[in-house]
Design a protein that fits this description.
It is a single chain. With 290 residues, the protein is α/β, with parallel strands linked by helices. The chain folds into 2 domains: 145 residues, 3-Layer(aba) Sandwich (Rossmann fold); 118 residues, Dihydrodipicolinate Reductase, domain 2. The strands form 2 sheets. It has a 6-stranded parallel beta sheet, sandwiched between helices. α2 packs across α12 and α10 runs antiparallel to α11. The longest helix has 13 residues.
Length: 290
Amino acid sequence: MAIITTIRDSSTVLEERRFNPRIEARVAIAGLGTIGKTLVRNLSRGVIPGMKLTGVAARDKTKARRTLDSMSLNVPVYDVEKLPGIADVVVECAPAAVLDKVVRPVLLADKTVIVLSAGALLSHPDLIELAHRKSGQIIIPTGALIGLDAVSAAAEGKISSVKMVTRKPIAGLIGAPYLVENEIDIENCNEPTLVFSGTAREAAKDFPANLNVAVALSLAGIGPDKTMLEIWADPTVTRNTHRIVVNSDSALLDMTIENIPSENPKTGRITALSVMSTLRKLNVPVRVGS
């Protein structure tokens, strides 16, 4: 059975919005990196009907204010613990190290949090338990991956194996803790090099800024200890590439996605768009996909 199920609208405001389109859901962004800035820019333009940006939070509030001013956006900047008071939905796109600080207050306030640092959730299983006990919800968007709806559907039956092979340009892996700790030099690689083989749980710990997608895949399917992963540093590719093979009693899934990097080589452009799609689905009268 899939660990992550389909999205359910837990916020009272979101439920009311289905019957009264004049009621807006308030959205706050935690983190102003590449993804956060993209979301702030688009939400400020009103591109998602029924969603109103009410604030952002960042570790350096002064820097965040300068960033927003440079974008000509008059968006309030808050301390992260204040976000549940000004939002119905909080989008976490901050460093994995501050996941608990972002997510816990939202769940305690019975609100919804969209989590991009999926790998860090494995180190905070109590947050998942808190979501069970409260009426809030953790949503993990598809992000830079493909086919999580198909994987979660297959998990309603029996999945025998899940394997993902990730190939990244050198710049997309430089600085990963696993490479640093094991003194693996990839900067001078001139051919595809296997740098990691193991489980999604192990990858979440060793590559915290690179492989949130592997954890999302594992939670949609058979779990982080059974989902297998290979990571290749590949100087022959210019896009972050993920191939997923799932064997199940309902289908054989073989899916590949090549993500165009954003200004941050560790992050694909489609990741922020996936969050926007997730937000849009919370309020649409006709929804496509599970």
